[in-house]
C-alpha cells in the first residue's frame, strides 16, 4: 500500500493514527549531508512506519533537527 506525503494541512476527513519520529544520520564522517537527500530518507522511514501501523498518509510536524523529524500518521479515504 502506498503512503502519501502531504506538506499542507491534513484534510478534515483523515483519522490520525499517531506519530513517528524518523531518524537518520545528518552527518557522515563530519560532512553535512544534503538537505534534499536527508528529507527523502526521513520521509521514506516515516512511510514505512505508517504502512506498518495501517496509515496511508504522513505529514511533517517538525523541522529536521540533527537528522530527526516528526511526522503525523493518518488514514485518509
Structural class: alpha+beta
Q: What does the oligomeric state look like here?
A: single chain
Number of helices: 1
Given this structure, which CATH class is correct?
Alpha Beta
Biggest sheet record: 4 strands, mixed
Number of strands: 6
Helix fraction bin? 10-25%
Measured on Cα atoms, how large is the radius of gyration? 13 Å
Reading the helices and strands in chain order gives: EEEEHEE
Shape descriptor: globular
CATH architecture: 2-Layer Sandwich
What is the strand content? 35-45%
Within the largest sheet, what's the order of strands? 1-5-6-2
Low-pLDDT runs of 5+ residues are none
Question: Could you say what the CATH topology is called?
Answer: Translation Initiation Factor IF3
Total separate domains? 1
- N/C terminus separation: 13 Å
For the residues shown, what is the average pLDDT? 88
